[in-house]
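User: Could you write out the 3D structure of this protein bound to pyridoxal-5'-phosphate? I've included everything you need below.
Assistant: Certainly. Input first, then the structure.
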Amino acid sequence: MNDDALRYGADTPLSRRVVAMRSSAIRDLLGDAQRPGMLSLAGGLPAADQFDVEGIERAFAQAMREAPRVALQYGATEGQPSLREALASLMAQRGAAVAPDDVVVTAGSQQALDLLARALLDPGDLVALERPSYLAALQAFALSGARFVAVSGDGDGACVERLLAAPGPAPKLVYLVTNFANPTGATLSLARRRALLDWAVRRRVVVVEDDPYGELRVEGAALPPLVALARDTPGAAHWCAYVSTLSKVVSPGLRIGFAVLPGWLRDAVVRVKQALDLQTGSLAQEVADRYLRSGRLAQRLPQLRASYRERRDALCDALAARFGDGLRFARPEGGMFVWARFTDGTDASALLAAARDEGTIFVPGAAFYDGAPDAAALRLSFATLAPPQLAEAVERLARAHRRLGGCDPTALAKREAGATPAH
Ligand SMILES: Cc1ncc(COP(=O)(O)O)c(C=O)c1O
């Protein structure tokens, strides 16, 4: 009997696809995150204390003053023309010359992923992605009946070489988070970006580049998105789909994402969007447009980055001080996440249970795998807590770890021999 039937009784005629879907472990943890006193390292939420409340309020008032009958009316499925223009300008700042017509506004970038899945995938089609990967993308592709081919990653992002060398049929699409990936924090190197594009053209594979975090670079130089590099590779523009969002730098509550697509794919995605929700909310689009044109995002980005840098350092320094060699991680150059692995045999899911009692939570790495997970891995977000709270959260994590007997060589030996960890 499946979970839905266990919960609601046998008469639950849900589709096989939906029954097969796992609930997101991260969403499930959101309830815990609301508990009083809980210091959560679990969410993928941006820092609420950094929202430009005043700037968005002004953009809202301006939209209602200047164009109330546009903001309150239905609009084009592709998005409001003025916002598409503003997003094309944003793309120019990211190094990609795109026309407003190439842009489709979506309800968050999550919807863009869903639309692409529906437009491109038939049941059984192969989707290649990095392992571990952003869970909700896996869910969107799985709902379209995709099968997955996963490649591992390293400090330079997904091991594209493995993908290129893989025997058998080419996948229909490749999905990658190119900058400060969720969950690994890694950025795809320039050499790998170029190699991927060459291969995509040769093998006729759509490359879906998901880039919610690129603007949150706190050190090092930005790399061009694949849609920008496609200029140097004949034929590549035909295969590149770029997806991004205002969620992480402005506000996820606006639900404004976008896709930059070649004409053939844009038309198909717009058809699918018509069937799904007709359009993204006009009011949110008019607000987002005015906000982007106000120049406040550009003014605020340096402060936002400085604050994320401080938080990243607070988390990484505390982890290094508390766990030493028992926990390996790379300091990401941006984004919101640190991906870490225990080297002392600690099981991250067992640690989560103990950490919850101590007043902190994180996401065990298992949540980001479709197959056999890495039990020693965990994702820690530094975005929402101030530096002193991050230090305290790591103290709590260390206490939970001690309770499990972590870093104790005898406990490790026992665990390796298959014994249950002591609580
Ligand atoms: C990699 C990645 N893609 C897409 C999204 C979806 O964001 P939104 O729908 O708010 O734009 C997220 C959110 O956490 C993400 O981490």
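The first helix runs from residue 3 to 8.
User: Perfect, thank you.
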